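Why do we care about 3D structure at all? Because function follows from shape, and shape follows, mostly, from sequence. That is the central idea of this module. The next example makes it concrete: a single protein chain, its amino acid sequence, and then its structure expressed as tokens.
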Amino acid sequence: MPAFEFAAPGTLQEALKHFAGQGTVRALAGGTDVIDQLKTARRKADLVVDVKRIPELQRLEMTADGLHIGAARCCTDVHHNPTVRRYFAALAESAGLVGSVQIQNRAAVGGNVCNAAPSADTTPALLIHDARAVVVSQRGRREIPLTDFFSGPGQTVLQKGEILQELILPVPPANSASAYLRFIPRNEMDIAVAGVGSYLEIDPGTNYVRRARIALASVAPTPVRARAAEQVLEGRPLTEDQVTMAAEAAAQAASPITDVRGSAEYRKELVKVLTRRTLAICQERIAGVHRKGPGH
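And the structure:
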């Protein structure tokens, strides 16, 4: 591995001083991606900054404005958190799919986002929950809709000196649910051939879809929202025909490549299947809560 300097600051301000310095500075939130990238020369670094000890980057809390997830909080904590599992099921599911249990104990959701791999499992779940990225530097703070965060494979809109502090997910309304599914050749520790996250908010009296969100992984240069598929569903009753039409539209939003894990045509068919299945899971979850009634 090429030589680099290392720092482990205990405060956010100290960390920002490091990131404002000269040369190429990399954050180490979990290290499960960046260490391998440095070893194989896919990325370079003059300085690696361990951000695991910074309190603001370890936050995991629901407040009035939503769920706050510090950029360095590990996937295991997010996966098992009762609030996440109750209100953001797709995120809980996807955080439990990032590599092995040992990887999840170390890997951070924020790191999964900043690595900007098109196949990142947590990103579709964050996108369907309208996540915002809170980015900080010595120049100040800004919020970026996660839909605008990715600029290409392995690339984000983060500027020199900026780091991701946290992700904020708005509190979901009643009669809503989310789900994430992926297809992989093996049961775990593999990269998704395709992944789909879906979110639905349904009017219980009419069965009309108030809001729909569908996001795709591994089928485009960046994670992508299937906006045309969402429009197929919104303002209409959730019928089998509408779900089929939405699945077709979701496949049209995909622009996959052919590689050793699957052909482009195969990936598009997977998007259709996974879209139908995740929408069905959302519908079942909403119906289950509605049957239980308030207080459950």
